[in-house]
Every structure is written in C-alpha cells, then in structure tokens.
Design a protein that fits this description.
mainly alpha, globular, about 40% helix
Length: about 80
C-alpha cells in the first residue's frame, strides 16, 4: 500500500513521498481502535503537515485535484 502510494505521488505530483510518523494529533487514530498491529493504515493526502490546523490553512489546488486520480488509482491498485 505504501509503495503504491509513493509511486502515485511520483507519477501525479513528481514528488518523492517520504514515509514518517505524524508529528501532530489526528482524528485518523480513531480508525485504529480495536485493530491489531497488522491492520494496514496510512495517512496520505494533499495537505502539508506544516500547514495542518494553522490559521489560514490551505492546500495547493493542483495537489487537491491530483488526489482525485491518485485515490482512484490507489483504490484500484489495492483491490487487485
């Protein structure tokens, strides 16, 4: 899942996606309740961590729209 996400980040955004833990608090952790350590999970989206929960938070429009295709291809890739 992570490798596919990295490939799609390169394909659609020409970015080398790094894999790291989230330095902040996120509601996404609620999705892990009751799951064991083998549950596949990642946070992957168009926003930049440095902008999260800031005054005037924003997402680049081209990244936002690219993620429509990224998510679609990610879902297709994970269902094969």
């Amino acid at each position: 899942m992570v490798e596919l996400a990295k490939e799609l980040g390169k394909k659609y955004l020409d970015l080398d996606i790094s894999v790291k833990g989230s330095p902040g608090v996120t509601d996404a952790s609620n999705l892990l309740r009751g799951k064991d350590d083998n549950f596949p999970f990642m946070m992957f989206g168009p926003g930049e961590t440095k902008m999260a929960h800031k005054t005037d938070e924003y997402v680049y429009k081209d990244y936002y729209f690219a993620f429509f295709d990224i998510y679609k291809e990610l879902i297709w890739g994970l269902t094969k």
